[in-house]
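Hi X.,

You mentioned you wanted examples for the new student's onboarding notes, showing what a folding record looks like when two proteins sit in one file. Here is a clean example. The first protein comes first, with its sequence line followed by its structure tokens.
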Amino acid sequence: MKFLFLFILGIVLTLNLNAQVGIGTTTPSPAAMLEVSSQTDGAGAYKGIMPPRVPDVAARDGINTVATDEGLIVYVESIGCLQVYNGSGWESIHCVNTIGFTNLFQNFDMNTTWGYSSDVAFFDNGNKGFYGVTNSSNGGFSNITTLTNDFLGVLDLDDTEDGNGTIGYATITFNTIDVSAATGGVTISFDYDFFEFDNGDNAYYTVVIDGVDQTEVTLIEGITDLSLSGSISESVPGGTTLVALKIRVKQNGQADYAGFDNFALVAN
């Protein structure tokens, strides 16, 4: 009987001891499974908590995540951002700002701090025409193979027979940003992917510095079924006050696709 009593008592004590875990404290809150104290039992030097760090985005993407890993947190050193996995991708909780300028991003799903507008309204006419935010699971947009998650997609921008789009160019304008605090200048970057652009299907971009359009740069001037993808990186020198970005695209045809993604404005 005494042995049985001691056995039951041991189980109860074990359950109580394992109900909460304390690091730096022997009295963790009963409301917490884990409590980390900034001191050891309320005394000594204060300390912080260090999240797991990865050197860059490629290393972060090398983490073998699944949907049930929602809430997983890492710090990405190359971009200075604490990020959380949302079940399908990574989004920033906070990015370090050490020079008085906040880096801006627009990838149309997780990081959307660099706003934009279009002079042609977005529309969705299925496989007959589309202009807006989409992904590679949307029909023929599977031909856009170099962009991941959501991106800005174009299919038959000249869908005027259905009351959509334009026979001319649509211009996407990324908001004008004050970059004067980035004393070393900034870099503008983005990715693009074009599938089977024909004659008359064209795209260009223009960096705007202090209200002045710089020389327009060709992304693609279509010929028969021309496919092309790549990345753009433009450095803007220190001393600049205002920066913006414009993209012009013209496209006709229900078998030709374009995608733009991963826009960034970051301090040098």
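Then the second protein repeats the pattern, sequence line and then tokens:
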Amino acid sequence: MRFFFCLLLTLNVLSVFAQSTDRTDKALERKLRAVLTNFRGNSGVYVRNLRTGKTVSINADTLFPTASMVKIPIQCGLFDKIHQGAIQYDQELTYKDSLHYDDGIVGSLKDGAKITLSKVVMLMETVSDNTGSLWCQALAGGGTAINAWLETNGFHQTRVNSRTPGREANRTQYGWGQTTPREMAELLTYIRQGHAISPDASEEMYRNLGRQYWDNDGLSQVPPGVKVASKNGAVNQSRSEVVFVHAPHGEYVYCIMTKNQKDESWTRTNEGYTLLRSVAATVWHHFEPKSTWKPAEGYEKWW
């Protein structure tokens, strides 16, 4: 039964992918191509309006580094283990210094400190805690198990590379993980629609993705009263973001990814960060043309 359930979900994803290429939103595509024109690097965008079914695909099937967006598939792999009964979402874990990767919140815990798995997952998705994320990756069975789940569920381009046997060359090229704008947007949609693991697991994963600390890029271009779920990622030559927006006139999802950026700075004015905001604003105002909302004057001073 599990085989046929997974087969059904895979066919559903493939059907979505096929349908999404049939109806292109030409007007939005023109706007987004104009936004991408002068970017110094490689970029890709995928947008899907779930109400109309219209899409935009610009280098949407090109591979890019996930950076911290890999934490979405890590969460899926982890919840698969929970669904199997191998681990419990509310179980208490013991932190060890051997888990330390960087000095985030989890990495700052004392050796022997107790913390529940649910809190580690929350920190992975909300503040993008790296030590916590690698811990979750290990608890999920490692990159090999997560990649197997991705393959089974129809995500053939999205992979975890770091600490995954046989993927050393991919890690050298793409870092922690790799994906395409289309697959990352559709993975978030897969979760939103209750297809990932189970409806209840999808719901909890989606709630986690709706609590984003890093809200100064694409999310800053959407009114704060609008529900969103998202994950972003950044390394020196790459800035990326996937966002599901519960817009007043219909839900939509989009993913913008970059690589080989000339601008490797870590300020708000980085060309990649600027592109994330420009894409977010362009998509929002295209789908919500009567919206007069814009970020408050002086908002950027906080960043």
